[in-house]
Design goal:
By secondary structure, the protein is α/β, with parallel strands linked by helices. The chain has 9 helices and 7 strands, in the order H-H-H-H-E-H-E-H-E-E-H-E-H-H-E-E. It is about 40% helix and about 20% strand.
Length: about 220
């Protein structure tokens, strides 16, 4: 999947995806309940870490902004889709001085130790180079939280539906996370299930891994 396919898909469907967060009961009826579950798990992890600054990779319309900003946490959201960024900035306007939104992709993430926690919810689903994304997030912050869909019928249906639009969806087994973490210079702190939908995984930077040079460009074909 090219960046163009991905950005175009979410550019065209920004309001539809944002609407899933408008009503949890409706979202659960539509099979989107794990979106709320992963959000709550992430908020719990953030609360346990007491971060001052959080990076939200693929922030979408900004559903993570209110629960963090109301705690006084500064959030920087990044997303490649212009329509998503517009919605995120609307959300951010309610928290002046606490939320910033930039239009850029994860491949443009070059910050080093700029945040206390980096989060990516609903992003690894569409990233072929998961270890590269984890590495960039792990350089930006010592703690990383991501959601990962699990293989199974649910994922197969998504692959068919999204594949018809030129978007590739990736699945992750419980045994994948240790090796992904190792490739990225991280370790797994906790792996929390989202029922059959997948997992939320909390990673942290390996002790003594203080390398500060920014990562190189993503592999060709990304």
């Amino acid at each position: 999947m090219s960046n163009g396919d991905f950005e175009s898909y979410f550019q065209q469907r920004a309001r539809r995806f944002a609407s899933f967060y408008s009503s949890e009961p409706v979202a659960r009826m539509l099979g989107r309940g794990p979106m709320f579950d992963r959000l709550r798990i992430t908020i719990d992890i953030a609360s346990s870490l007491s971060p001052d600054r959080v990076l939200d990779v693929g922030c979408g319309s900004g559903p993570l902004f209110p629960p963090l900003a109301t705690k006084g946490i500064h959030v920087t959201g990044i997303d490649p889709a212009e329509a998503m960024v517009a919605l995120a900035r609307q959300q951010a306007s309610a928290y002046p001085g606490l939320v910033d939104v930039d239009q850029r992709s994860w491949e443009e993430l070059t910050e080093v130790d700029a945040y206390d926690l980096a989060v990516a919810l609903g992003v690894f689903d569409y990233v072929a180079e998961a270890a590269q994304l984890l590495e960039r997030m792990g350089r930006a912050a010592p703690h990383v939280v991501g959601s990962f869909p699990a293989p199974g019928l649910r994922l197969n249906l998504r692959k068919r539906r999204y594949g018809a639009q030129g978007v590739t969806v990736h699945g992750y087994r419980a045994t994948d996370f240790a090796s992904l973490a190792s490739e990225a210079g991280l370790e797994v702190v906790d792996r929390l299930p989202l029922g059959r939908a997948g997992y939320v995984v909390h990673f942290r930077r390996l002790q003594g891994n203080t390398e500060t040079s920014p990562p190189g460009p993503p592999a060709s074909g990304s």
